[in-house]
Every structure is written in structure tokens, then in C-alpha cells.
Amino acid sequence: MNRPAAAYDFVVRGATVLTSADSFVGDIAVADGRVAALGAVEAGTAEIVDARGLVAVPGGVDAHTHFDMPFAGGTTADDFETGTRAALFGGTTTIIDFATQRRGASLLSALEAWHAKADGRCLADYAFHMAITDFSARASAEVERLAREGVTSLKLYLAYPGTLMSEDDAVLRALRRSNEVGALVSLHCENGRAIAELVRRALREGRRGCANHPLTRPPELEAEAVRRAAALARAARAPVYLVHLSAAESLETVRRCRQGGAFVLAETCPQYLYLSAREYERPGLAAAPFVVCPPLRSREDAQALWAGLAAGEFQAVASDHCSFPARTRPGRPGKDRGRRDFSRVPGGAPGVETRLPLLWEAVQRGDISTGRFVELAACGPAKAFGLYPRKGHLNPGADADIVLIDPRHRAAITARALHHAVDYTPFEGLTVHGAVRDVWLRGKRMLSQGRLLGRPGDGRYISRSRRQFCL
Ligand SMILES: [Zn+2]
Questions:
Q1: Are 300 and 248 a contacting pair, CB within 8 Å?
Q2: According to the CATH classification, is domain 5-57+394-452 in 2.20.25.90?
Q3: pLDDT tens-digit profile of 290-304?
């Protein structure tokens, strides 16, 4: 039932409204920060926003960002303020970042530390995964409490031995324990020990440039870890979410593991779709901005990922936003750490602002449908991580996180026009059709015709619910 017209706070009128199931030209009525009605709405005295000719989509959900992340005695360039501001300009209204356990320390203290980083600073809603460095008995005991605090996902790494990597037994325990409390485990799939050996060998042979980055992290070592992750999940009778898949072989492995009965959710990122390992042929540090882990792959890999997106084999496209400046400053490790050794380049690139526009561009190019766009940009990650039905779609009752896209706009992506805290984007010069024009967060207008109205502190912590699907 629609509410009496006078009760609406405002009505977005005449937009092409996209959901994951369909699209229609109509209105969105908002009351008390939520979507109150859809379709032909009687506005009464409510404010009317003329959205004819514009496209209305649910606010983006980016399930993979690293803001204010400790690294090499400093932090990443973007903190929760600059990171969520950039998110907003890119039509993303909810991010999930990673609180990270210090080795041997408690998970709850990590959560507390990350709340302190984000509290009062965000311009988008935010939630936390818990990144595990040491799944101890104490950590295991804290998982239930974490879930009560709204942290219903853990992330473990099969890469980075000595710092972040977990052994298979710890991964198995984390999968089992998470499943008991309705939390989801996500995994970074690359074979850390084999990669470390390839890196040592390259350095021994005097191969020190960024061209060696993809050579020491080959796709077969990602696919091996994907297979192991799926096998461990099956053995634990738990679902698993695989972050940032980059290669055709990994996707093929996911396909086979699913056929074999594994419950595998998969994510990829715009950099693996739009860029390729040819970027590493740039001389010297010019290649360093493109050093991400897993590395950029071949064009054929990107094509396979596009086909996977179109076929519904991925549940989310996330940014993996992890920004490092070109030059190191005090407290801000930069890409130039790898001047003489590619393995010391901090891995990561900015992308929280370009993620949704690049997915929209995929719709314009005919690579994915509008339904798939909504699924990958918002609905899928919201469902996987316990934000649905509050986030990720525009149905009545959902948070009024609304993004208006002007589809007539056409411009090249340039670092100068972006809002993150580093002065480059890996997508420099790439032309995209459509621009994010207006953004509402829980009914509050945050962006108006490209002008920022939101403030730090407008974004709230979102306590996520436990897993809604069962095996
Ligand atoms: Zn990441």
C-alpha cells in the first residue's frame, strides 16, 4: 500500500528505474530515509525531483576497499573520509572495508581500532569484514561476538607468507567456525609460498623490474589456490567467497568446483576487465601504479571474465581500492619503494570512484545487461554480505540510497577529475558514457548535479546480518 501523498519527503519523478529484474519509467517516493513507493506516485505536497531522461539505480555497494590500511609503518593514502567521498562521487553509497587483526591479537580489538578510524568521518555507509592473520583459539571464540557486532564475514589470505597468509588448517577451522555462526569466509587466492619462491629466484637472477610482477604471480598459482579454497569449503560444508578473481583459468576452476558441489561465490574487479599485463611493459616506475595482486592478466583472460559476468558466474564487482602515492612521504609508503625491487612495490590501486561508472560503461558497450549491472554493482554484494534487503535495490522498505545517472554524458576518466587522495588512476584516458549526477544516502541528498552536499559523519556503520542462504 502506498502511503498518503503528503507523507513523502520527496519524489524522484520520471526516471528510468533499474532493478536486478527489470526496468521501467516511473517515480521513486521517499519517506523517513527509505523507499516508500515505486511506479506512478501521487506526490501531493512532497518535493519533486525532475529526473526525466535520467537513470535511477540503487546506490552502489563496494564490498572490497582498503581505507586507512596499515602498511610498512604507514597507511594507504585514502582514509575513511577521502575514500568514502570518492565512493560517493562514483555512485557508491556503501563500502565494506577490512578491519585487520594484528598477529596474535584479538579480533575485537581490531574491530574497535577500525571503528575509531571510521567513526564520524564517512560520507557513505560502511561495514567491516574481519581480516584474519592468525586464526587462534581465541580468535575462533570471538567469531560469535563479531557476528553480533554486525561483522558477519572473515577474510583469510592464501598469499603473503609471514604476514597475512593462513595455512590450510587455519582456513578450514575458520570456514567451519564461520559457518556455525552464519558468517561467510572470503579468501584471497594465490599460492603464497610458490610465489615467494618465484620472486626470490627472479631477484637472484637480477630481474628487478615491474615486468617480473606478473611473471612471478602466474595464473596457475591463482587457479591452484582457487581449487584449494573450494576444496576446503567443501570439506567444511561451508560456502566461500573468492575475492578479485583475475584469470580465465580461475573462473574455469570455479565452474568445475561448483559442478562438483562446492558453494563458491566469486568477485572480480574493473582492473581485470579493462586493463591487461601490457601495462607492465612501461619503463621503470611508470609500471608501478599498475602493480596489483593478483596482477593484471592477458586480454584473453579479460574476455573470459566478461563472458563470466554476462553469464551470471560472478556475484559482485568490487574495486579493491587500495591507494598508494607515487612517492613515499612520512607515514605514506609509495610506489617508489620498488625502485630497485619490483617485489617491494606496494600492491594496489585506487578504484572506488570508477567502479560503478566502468560497470555502467559495460552496459553501454553491450557487454552486460542493466539487470546484471544492478546485480554486480549493488544487489549481489549486498546479498552475499548480509546487507540485503536494506541495501542493494530500490524496493519499498529499502534504504533510500538512490543514484541518478545522466546517460547522455560522455567523458574520459582523468585523475584530475577524481576525488581520491592519490594523483593517478589506472583507467586514465578511458572514455565512459554516463555520469553520476545525484546521490541520496538514506534519503539525504549527498550529491546534487555533481556538487557535494554530504559531510563527513553522514555515513553510518551498518551492522550486517548473518548469512541468509543455506547449503
Ligand atoms: Zn584487497
A1: yes
A2: no
A3: 999 999 999 999 999
